[in-house]
Amino acid sequence: MADQVSNNASSSPSSSGGESEEEKNVLQKHVAFFDRNKDGVVYPWETFMGFRAIGANLFLSTVSAVFINLGLSSKTRPGKFPNFLFPIEIKNIQLAKHGSDSGVYDSEGRFVSKKFEEIFKKHALTYPDALTEKELKALLKSNREPKDYKGWVAAWTEWTTLYNLCKDENGLLKKETVKAVYDGSLFEHMEKQRASKKKK
After folding, report:
1. What's the pTM?
2. Number of domains forming the structure of the chain
């Protein structure tokens, strides 16, 4: 898996200072995996199906669908009447950025290479290219903004879910895995890998 993820990561936004077209849309790419019918909108049942596709159990998939769509729907539909199907509009996903995050996505949803590298320079103390569970907790704590309780919960949920789904056999969350999740390529790989195992 590491080799495949590494290949995916190498095709993600460049770490140079330039701003490519790919970088402009990286947050949208991250979310687009869950748009199962590719209509530009993610409904709760699509979020659920996306989590199931990458190997999450029924409980995590259900909770994630509820938590994510309830939390992000209104933010991505500014000025619109509330929709009780809680759709997330991918084109506006940058409006749903929460506080107390890593800053790897900027306010326009672009990938910020410097912020990504800082995660591992500051917190990957055991191995330079991976985070232990303890180091991940330290990362979350260092990103907390005062009294930003919603941001704390959102960041903890995102990173804990990523760690539980993608840690390796040694309990490490690899750098290439984290980079691949930012552009959504990891989700596609996990879905294909899971489908391949089912066929065997």
Report:
1. 0.80
2. 1
